[in-house]
Design brief:
The protein has 167 residues and is mostly helical. The protein has one domain. The protein contains eleven helices and no strands. α1 crosses α11 and α4 runs antiparallel to α5. It is globular, with a radius of gyration of 16 Å.
């Protein structure tokens, strides 16, 4: 796919949102999920290494643990939860709880970004659950979830793709 096709793919997800969301909410849902999918793709290859490092160093100070996890992730951010967006779909009965675990597993710098979608740190990450539609009362079709996780936002494609989608 070229960048325009990726952008079309991403923005056409609004078709899945029509009955469950107001039109003014489409952008918030789409941008939140695009960000989460991008981060998910970037961290995927190192997920098991980060989990091992977390287990090995979890008793260390927060600063040491953070530095070790960033080194394991090979990025300045990480996720210590055992989940990816794809693996979340494997257990529909525990989807909400597992998604909370997934969001809370991110490093503080990623949580800061996510707070921008949730209304601030004082509100926590719960609003992002609703805005991206993983909670039961705002449960978008399963097809939308599968469509998101099929989206390949792996390096090296993402730089041009994200520029196309966000600017």
């Amino acid at each position: 796919m070229n960048p325009n096709q990726y952008a079309d793919f991403i923005w056409n997800i609004k078709e899945y949102l029509r009955d469950d969301y107001a039109e003014k909410e489409y952008e918030e849902v789409i941008l939140s999920f695009t960000l989460l999918r991008r981060i998910d793709c970037v961290l995927e290859k190192q997920q098991s290494k980060v989990a091992e490092t977390h287990e090995q160093y979890k008793s260390k100070s927060k600063n040491i643990l953070d530095a070790m996890l960033k080194k394991s992730a090979r990025y300045n951010f990480y996720n210590v939860s055992p989940f990816s967006l794809t693996s979340l779909l494997n257990d529909a009965d525990a989807l909400e709880e597992n998604f909370k675990n997934y969001l809370n597993g991110f490093s503080d710098n990623i949580k800061d970004i996510l707070y921008n979608f949730s209304g601030g740190e004082e509100k926590g990450l719960s609003p992002i659950l609703a805005s991206v539609g993983w909670v039961e009362e705002r449960n978008p079709p399963f097809g939308m979830r599968k469509r998101w996780v099929s989206l390949s936002l792996y390096p090296p494609y993402a730089r041009s793709l994200m520029k196309c989608c966000y600017w």
